[in-house]
């Protein structure tokens, strides 16, 4: 019998919120301290061994497309593992899909962000329909008749997995379908078209014909879909069932076989004269649907920050329990360097994400400009860093990290998708340039945000001056460099204000001094790694 020694206990049955100092502080600081009790409850539930196992199971038993029923009738249904439903039920019960819309008190989007940040640590697939439903409200609110019919069900916290007309359901989930085979970023190249067929009062109904190359969570009850009319790309709400109670002509051709996000179904669909209702004006579909996109992009930053946090928690936990060369790994100076560097990156991601979420709680001009610039910027940089981060965190576990029974392998496969969907990296950076070009105030507002902390640290002061200079001559080919620098300036400013000195000082020393390396563990000698790791450790350790 082989005796098992020197293997860490599993990191489970711990509270994802109580054990996360950075998150706790950010929740309080960004106006959502009132939500701490609920977030703590959710943190406990998500950190339970049961939910952690559900996250793994939902990804091991991937969804299956049932194109026809056993009699040969077209059915276009997707079957999910029970654990998918368990996790989605918990997410809805916790209001992660719509709570800030139902109760829009200050800090509501921040409180939700904290919940989603924890959900992403345990299972990112269910986060997809949760995020799309949350984001859809921003668009649907501008279509009064649709809002009246759909929002009460969208707001419901009772998860109803049944596949039937929404009028007979307790709740509704919303997806979106923009990307077509010939082009996703370039939405004007969409060829799916819509023909008007009926009007009732102010409501306008169309038949949609064409396809979508990606349509995730196809068991949602309705989708925001872009299709061409004679006026150009137009936004429609396309339900799974027609008003007459028949399955709508949305045919799921197949499910994608994906690198990660495997618990979630991402489908290719064909619209064969599918019923859809006009949202907004004909030809104004892109701005209408992009309103939803801002919220899903925020969620990408939240999700990637959550993945980093989970990677970090697992890495520190492992290093605190595993011995090599007569010492715990965490006490090996080079490993301490790696872990501290990861901790700094994770904290920088979390503070910026939570600050950005606050901008969604505020509706003044400055906050709107902040959102407009910082959402694509944060999505670009945080989601990009998450992939490198996941690879490094995985390596801390040595060979175990590469094995599917540990969640680091899943996090590693999961990480790139937040960078690709909802607008890939380049598109995000070009969007930052566009937002700055449109609003003179936007750059001033970013500078105002970092000005005071820049007085406290001359490295940030010099970095901001350069950022200002480069903003005056924005060049498309340099959009990634500019966006990275903008994010680094914001992260440095936030850390100087809100993190212990050793964190902000090391961040400024390593991130503002030149090119940020793709490898972690390059912190200078004499870094107070012990203090940095102690702050980041899941505190149940
Ligand atoms: C798992 C998954 C689920 C998805 N679910 C959905 C969904 O539910 N609904 C939906 O509508 N879509 C969905 N998508 C699609 C996703 O949003 C698109 O794949 C993404 O927006 C990129 O579009 P594309 O694949 O057509 O690539 P392209 O538009 O062809 O872009 C390819 C590359 O070129 C870059 N690029 C494009 N234009 C420029 C430019 N002007 N300058 C420099 N670089 C440029 C892009 O950044 C990208 O890196 C999903 C994708 C994935 C992977």
Description:
This protein has 541 residues and is α+β, with helices and mostly antiparallel strands. It folds into three domains: 21-155, no CATH class; 172-284, Butyryl-CoA Dehydrogenase, subunit A, domain 2 (Beta Barrel); 288-536, Up-down Bundle (Butyryl-CoA Dehydrogenase, subunit A, domain 3). The chain is built from 18 helices and eleven strands. The strands form three sheets. Strands 3, 4, 5, 6, 7, 8 and 9 form a seven-stranded mixed β-sheet that branches. A hairpin with a 2-residue loop joins strand 4 and strand 5. The radius of gyration is 23 Å and the shape is globular. The two termini are 29 Å apart. The mean pLDDT is 97. The structure holds flavin-adenine dinucleotide. Flavin-adenine dinucleotide binds at residues 175-179, 183-186, 214-216, 258, 261, 266, 417, 420-427.
Features:
541 residues; alpha+beta; 3 domains; seven-stranded mixed β-sheet; Butyryl-CoA Dehydrogenase, subunit A, domain 3; 11 strands; globular
Number of individual domains = 3
Name of the CATH class of the largest domain: Mainly Alpha
Percentage of residues in helical conformation: 40-55%
Query: How far do the termini sit from each other?
Result: 29 Å
The Rg value, from CA coordinates, equals: 23 Å
Low-pLDDT stretches: none
SSE layout and pairing:
Blueprint: H1 21-32, H2 36-46, H3 49-60, E1 64-68, E2 74-79, H4 82-93, H5 99-102, H6 108-122, H7 127-140, H8 144-155, E3 174-177, E4 193-200, E5 203-216, E6 222-229, E7 232-239, E8 250-255, E9 266-279, H9 285-321, E10 323-324, E11 327-328, H10 333-359, H11 365-396, H12 407-420, H13 425-438, H14 440-456, H15 458-471, H16 479-498, H17 501-511, H18 529-536
Parallel strand pairs: 3-6
Antiparallel strand pairs: 1-2, 4-5, 5-9, 6-7, 7-9, 8-9, 10-11
Helix pairs in contact: 1-6, 1-10, 2-6, 3-4, 6-9, 6-10, 7-9, 9-10, 9-11, 9-12, 10-11, 10-16, 10-18, 11-12, 11-13, 11-14, 11-16, 13-14, 13-16, 14-15, 14-16, 15-16, 16-17
The structure holds flavin-adenine dinucleotide (FAD).
């Amino acid at each position: 019998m082989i005796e098992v020694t020197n293997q860490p206990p599993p990191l489970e049955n711990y509270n994802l919120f109580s054990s996360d100092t950075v998150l706790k502080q950010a929740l309080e600081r960004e106006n959502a301290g009132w939500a701490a009790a609920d977030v703590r409850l959710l943190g406990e539930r998500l950190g339970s061994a049961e939910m952690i196992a559900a996250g793994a199971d939902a990804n091991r038993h991937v969804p299956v497309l049932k194109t026809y029923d056993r009699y040969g009738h077209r059915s276009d249904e997707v079957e999910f593992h029970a654990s998918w439903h368990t996790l989605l039920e918990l997410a809805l019960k916790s209001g992660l899909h719509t709570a800030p819309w139902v109760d829009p008190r200050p800090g509501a989007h921040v409180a939700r962000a904290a919940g989603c940040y924890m959900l992403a640590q345990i299972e990112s697939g269910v986060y997809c329909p949760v995020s799309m439903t949350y984001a859809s409200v921003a668009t649907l609110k501008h279509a009064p008749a649709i809002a009246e019919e759909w929002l009460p069900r969208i707001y419901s916290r009772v998860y109803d997995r049944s596949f039937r007309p929404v009028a007979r359901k307790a709740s509704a989930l919303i997806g979106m379908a923009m990307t077509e085979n010939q082009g996703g970023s370039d939405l004007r190249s969409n060829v799916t078209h819509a023909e008007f067929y009926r009007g009732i009062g102010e409501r306008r109904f169309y038949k949609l014909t064409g396809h979508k190359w990606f349509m995730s969570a196809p068991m949602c009850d309705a989708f925001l879909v872009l299709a061409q009319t004679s006026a150009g790309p137009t936004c429609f709400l396309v339900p799974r069932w027609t008003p007459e109670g028949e399955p709508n002509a949305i045919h799921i051709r197949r499910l994608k076989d994906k690198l990660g996000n495997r618990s979630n179904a991402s489908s290719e669909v064909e619209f064969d004269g599918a019923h859809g209702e006009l949202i907004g004006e004909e030809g104004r579909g892109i701005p209408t649907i992009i309103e939803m996109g801002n919220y899903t992009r925020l969620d990408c930053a939240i999700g990637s920050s959550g993945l980093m946090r989970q990677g970090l928690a697992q890495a520190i936990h492992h290093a605190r329990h595993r011995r090599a060369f007569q010492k715990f790994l965490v006490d090996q100076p080079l490993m301490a360097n790696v872990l501290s560097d990861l901790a700094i990156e994770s904290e920088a991601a979390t503070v910026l994400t939570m600050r950005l979420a606050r901008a969604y709680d505020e509706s003044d001009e400055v906050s709107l400009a902040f959102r407009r610039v910082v959402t694509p910027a944060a999505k670009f940089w945080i989601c990009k860093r998450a992939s490198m981060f996941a690879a490094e965190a995985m390596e801390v576990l040595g060979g175990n990290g590469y094995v599917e029974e540990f969640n680091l392998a899943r996090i590693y496969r999961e990480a790139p998708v937040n960078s690709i969907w909802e607008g890939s990296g380049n598109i995000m950076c070009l969007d930052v340039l566009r937002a700055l070009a449109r609003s003179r105030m936007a750059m001033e507002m970013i500078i105002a945000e970092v000005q005071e902390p820049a007085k406290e640290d001359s490295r940030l002061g010099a970095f901001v001056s350069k950022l200002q200079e480069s903003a005056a001559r924005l060049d498309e080919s340099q959009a990634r460099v500019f966006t990275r620098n903008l994010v680094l300036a914001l992260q440095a400013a936030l850390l100087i204000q809100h993190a212990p000195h050793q964190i902000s000082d090391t961040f400024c020393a390593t991130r503002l001094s030149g090119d940020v390396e793709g490898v972690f563990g390059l912190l200078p000698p004499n870094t107070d790694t012990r203090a940095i790791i102690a702050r980041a450790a899941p505190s149940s350790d």
